[in-house]
C-alpha cells in the first residue's frame, strides 16, 4: 500500500477540530482520544513528536466519528500531565507545588511508606497514596525522590516504581552527585566518570538504582547538597558546634527549590535516558560555609571548629551542560547570597 509524508497541519485541518494539540492527544491515555488517532501509525523519533507523520494514503478519509468537544480536549490535556511523586518529602513537595502551578487542574499524587504525613499532603493538594495499598493506574509522569535509607533493596524500589509509569511523559530519579569519581577537590561535571561498583556501599546502592532507571528509558538528575535555612550540613554543624571532619573539603550545593525547578524543567522537556547534574556552580569549602553562617548573625548557635586534618576531599562541580541543554537557571544563585540576602 502506498504511503506518503503528510504534515501535521494538513492532517489536523482535515480530520480534527480546530485548536487540538495533537502532541497532547498522542501522549494522552484517555481512550476517547486514543480512538480518534488509533488509525495513525505514528512513528516518534527520540520520543519527541516530529513535524511529519507517515500515514497510509487510504487512511486520509474524512472521519465519521463525532467531533471532539473543547471540554474533552481540556480534560485530555490535563490528564496528560498527571504526576506521581514517590517519596514526597521536602524536595517532592517543592516539585508538586511547581508542577501544579505549571499545569492547574492536573492530578498530583504522593506515595509514602506510612500515613504519617498524609494530612499535610492533602493540605497541599497532593493525593496521598500508601505504598502497595492503592489501585491508581500508571502515571505519565513519575518522580522518585525517596532516599535509600529506608529501603533494604533500593534498586528493586526503582524497578517497582518504573511499573507505575505508563511510558508516556518522563520517569525521573533524583540521584546524587556523590557517584562522580573525584575526591581531591578537583573539577567535576556531567562528563566526569563515576566510581566503580565496590567503591563504597553508599555509591553502590545509588549506581544500581540508576541502572534500573536507565533500563526503562528513565532520566536521572544527580543533585549536589540540598539546603534551606534550617536543612543541610550547615544547620547540623552550627547546632553541634564542633565537626569531626576536614574544613577544607569542597562542597557543592543547590537549594531545594532550585532542585525542584530543575526536575520540573526536565519533566517538561520530555527527556529520556539522560543524566543531568544540579548544582549552583559556586563550590565552597566547609570552613567557608560555616564562616558565612557565623558572620550572618542569623543563627542562635555558633560553630566552633572542624577537628580533622586528613581524609577524603571533595570536588568542584559545574553543571554547564545541563544548563545549556535545558535552559535551567537557579533562583538562588549561591549559598552565600541566600544566607546574606534571603534568610
Automatic annotation (TrEMBL):
SUPFAM superfamilies: NAD(P)-binding Rossmann-fold domains. GO terms for molecular function: isomerase activity. Keywords: Isomerase, NAD. InterPro entries: NAD(P)-bd_dom_sf (IPR036291). Belongs to the NAD(P)-dependent epimerase/dehydratase family. This is Uncharacterized protein. It comes from Ceratopteris richardii. The lineage of its organism: Eukaryota, Viridiplantae, Streptophyta, Embryophyta, Tracheophyta.
